[in-house]
Design brief:
Blueprint lengths: L1 H27 L13 E9 L4 H4 L5 H9 L1 E6 L10 H10 L3 H4 L17 H8 L5 E5 L3 H4 L8 E3 L9 H18 L4 E6 L1 H9 L4 H22 L7 E9 L14 H4 E7 L6 E3 L7 H8 L18
Parallel strand pairs: 1-5, 1-6, 2-8, 3-4, 3-5
Antiparallel strand pairs: 2-7, 6-7
Helix pairs in contact: 8-10, 9-10
């Protein structure tokens, strides 16, 4: 019996020693360094509103930066589809752009802003602030009425020109662009809205067919290029995914002016470039599509009362 016990005892001891050796060997092996996953890019949106830009005149100019955005994303042209009593004016158009609903709901039919329903249908920046207070929102317009009427209501940082100061007309947009390029390039921002007016002012004074209007459009294009460049110069840009939207509110008659129903006055366009927005040309631009596009590009649920659809498709 002893040989039997000895025969079974030795292998047991060997197995224990081998197990210990394996543990020691494993404990001495170098630990592999696992890189953490890269941070998820943060979505951000820049909306550039350009007042009184006639679509058929845009591509008669160099439009270097506008063409570059068109080559990256979606360019849609179209005409305002106005209900009876609604004029081709800035008040109704910008109300539609910012609220995401048509005049029948937001209540603005002309530049008096009488009948406005902004409490019920707030602008997209106000909606974002209420849903995501952590977002940094900025808005700048030369038209103080946007703030005085409540069309732009709840925004982290906003600015307009001081009343009573006689600024040179051609410098007004330049002041806004200069300020916003600095803010975009150097500060925390998530959603930006600018409203630029010089093309509209020039068209009212000189009409949209002359050299003055061409110069205004070329200057506007350079300003858009500076704004996009400011986005790309952000230190955090590699960890961000930006969308850029450019929209106009109405066109102009050949002699200048708008408010009626001629095809030239009703001209509009939308340009959008960003993640998920494919390169495409469309002919059914609708102003109500701007607000849902902002929400979609931020990865947020689109409010049920919006009347448009996101330009990148449903999200």
């Amino acid at each position: 019996m002893r040989p039997h016990r000895a025969r079974h005892g030795r292998p047991s001891a060997v197995r224990v020693s081998l197990a210990l050796a394996t543990v020691v060997a494993l404990s001495c092996a170098p630990v592999a360094h696992v890189e953490p996953p890269p941070p998820k890019p943060v979505p951000k949106v820049l909306v550039i509103g350009v007042d009184g830009v006639r679509t058929d005149r845009v591509l008669t100019t160099r439009a270097t930066y506008l063409r570059a955005l068109m080559s990256e994303g979606l360019y849609a042209t179209g005409h305002l589809d106005l209900a009876p009593g609604v004029k081709s004016l800035s008040g109704p158009a910008w109300s539609t752009i910012l609220t995401g609903v048509n005049p029948e709901k937001h209540g603005v039919h002309d530049n008096t802003f009488n009948g406005r329903q902004y409490t019920r249908y707030p602008d997209f920046l106000t909606r974002l602030e209420r849903l995501r207070p952590d977002l940094d929102t900025l808005a700048v317009t030369l038209w103080r009425t946007f703030f005085e009427t409540g069309l732009l209501h709840q925004v982290d940082w906003h600015a307009t020109l001081r009343p009573g100061v006689d600024y040179a007309e051609h410098l007004k947009d330049e002041m806004i662009i200069r300020r916003m390029t600095d803010l975009i390039a150097r500060h925390q921002v998530d959603v930006v809205f600018l409203h630029l007016v010089n093309p509209d002012k020039v068209a009212h004074k000189h009409g949209p067919l002359g050299s003055e209007y061409v110069t205004a459009l070329d200057t506007l294009d350079l300003g858009i290029g500076r704004l996009v460049d400011a986005v790309r110069r952000r230190p955090t840009y590699p960890n961000e995914k930006w969308s850029v939207i450019v929209v106009t509110d109405h066109g102009h008659r050949d002699e200048g002016g708008h408010g009626g129903l001629s095809p030239e006055e009703l001209q509009i366009f939308l340009l959008a470039a960003g993640p998920g927005i494919r390169h495409e040309r469309r002919h059914e631009a609708k102003l109500v599509d701007v607000a849902p596009t902002v929400f979609a590009q931020l990865g947020m649920r689109i409010p049920a009362d919006f009347e448009g659809v996101p330009l990148g498709g449903e999200k």
